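Re: [ENG-882] Designed sequences occasionally contain unexpected residues at chain ends

Forwarding the minimal case from QA. Structure tokens:
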């Protein structure tokens, strides 16, 4: 494992951080605790020392899971904990202290090493300032409950710079990957923050999984031209670590093979280590993805739940799969995802409340993008398939209930 330090901190941080937003789950959707615990501790035992969570991850269960199951038996002392204040839920000053106390309680700790205001943009920062967040941050820093203060960000570059300028932050967390080099804060934002002496933590390095797994044929062909053969995840992570202003890259790992691979990449990815030839291959891949993707959804599910029951991330995932791979399985997957929804709904049932767009950190014009979903996914065959799935599902549930009696 390689380590880097934030410019204003003496704490060595593993270049690979563990993102605890996408831990492995059971069929019922709860965190698969034995599996997640084994995976996290394996990574820690192999040198990873930065765990990133948030109040809202796994519907509030991520922090408590870490506190109760991972950070016991001496593991608290082996790691740096990063977690985030849920600014999006805060409307009154007194809630700030309450959320913070709850986070300490959930994590079974009396200090948080890296504390962030979650998902800031210009207007949310203004609202938090009006609620007294600056005084609060100064206080928890002074009394030692927080070692490093930062913010995660989803918004335009000018707002990012303004927030960087508005408080003596220790670090920031931004989205950065092969497809988002100039999106939101992007490369310019990273350089700006580093220029002010801030550490930089990267989220969504694999763009919600789009950059790995099954690849579009044209992208695969570009990677195969490279003189050094690497996996797509290895290329994508290595490209980020090539940037000397990046301190930690978070990966939401939930498969053993991914953890092994990422740990391996993290042990050899030094700053400025990619050759001009390697960077040229990467540029080709970036351009090809730009041609293929229809919607910039990363599957973070901030937009959910939709009050009508539209499965927004599933719709966009299917739309991108369709254009990336050109196969009909994307349609089938969308039908299955929709059919097994508790209250399935189609995009033409959208009432236009806009709640999803307000919550989307990617600022996707969701209602506008639904036109593509209707045109390409929601045809009579798919609706018929969903009707069959629903009949089968409700029938199975009835049989199960009878058997339970
Ligand atoms: S705008 Fe439409 S899709 Fe978005 S939350 Fe409201 S009903 Fe759901």
């Amino acid at each position: 494992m390689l380590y880097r330090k934030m410019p204003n901190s003496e704490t060595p941080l593993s270049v690979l951080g563990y993102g605890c937003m996408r831990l492995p789950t059971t069929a019922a959707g709860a965190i698969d605790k034995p599996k997640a615990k084994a995976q996290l501790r394996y990574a820690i035992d192999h040198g990873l020392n930065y765990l990133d969570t948030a109040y809202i991850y796994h519907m509030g269960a991520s922090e408590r899971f870490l506190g109760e199951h991972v950070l016991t038996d001496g593991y608290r002392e082996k790691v740096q904990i990063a977690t985030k204040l849920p600014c999006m839920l805060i409307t009154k000053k007194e809630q700030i202290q309450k959320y913070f106390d709850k986070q300490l309680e959930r994590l079974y700790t009396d200090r948080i090493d890296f504390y962030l205001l979650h998902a800031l943009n210009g207007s949310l920062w203004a609202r938090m300032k009006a609620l007294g967040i600056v005084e609060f941050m100064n206080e928890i820093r002074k009394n030692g409950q927080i070692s490093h203060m930062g913010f995660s960000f989803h918004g335009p570059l000018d707002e990012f710079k303004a927030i960087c300028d508005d408080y003596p932050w220790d670090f920031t967390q931004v989205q950065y990957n092969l497809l988002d080099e100039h999106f939101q804060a992007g490369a310019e934002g990273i350089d700006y923050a580093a220029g002010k002496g801030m550490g930089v933590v990267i989220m969504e390095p694999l763009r919600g999984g789009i950059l790995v797994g099954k690849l579009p044929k044209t992208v695969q062909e570009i990677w195969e031209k490279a003189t050094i053969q690497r996996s797509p995840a290895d290329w994508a992570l290595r490209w980020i670590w090539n940037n000397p202003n990046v301190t930690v890259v978070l990966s939401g790992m939930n498969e053993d093979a991914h953890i092994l691979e990422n740990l391996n990449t993290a042990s050899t990815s030094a700053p400025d280590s990619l050759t001009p030839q390697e960077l040229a291959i990467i540029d080709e891949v970036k351009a090809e993805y730009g041609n293929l993707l229809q919607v910039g959804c990363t599957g973070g599910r901030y937009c959910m739940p939709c009050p009508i029951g539209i499965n927004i991330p599933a719709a966009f995932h299917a739309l991108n799969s369709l254009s990336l791979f050109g196969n009909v399985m994307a349609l089938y997957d969308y039908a299955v995802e929709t059919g097994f929804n508790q209250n399935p709904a189609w995009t033409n049932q959208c009432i236009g409340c806009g709640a999803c767009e307000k919550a989307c950190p990617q600022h996707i014009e969701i209602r506008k993008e639904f036109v593509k979903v209707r045109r390409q996914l929601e045809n009579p065959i798919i609706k018929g398939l969903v009707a069959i799935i629903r009949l089968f599902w409700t029938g199975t549930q009835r049989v199960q209930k009878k058997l339970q009696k």
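QA comment: On inspection the terminal residues look reasonable. The longest helix spans residues 380-404. Proposing we downgrade this to a documentation issue.
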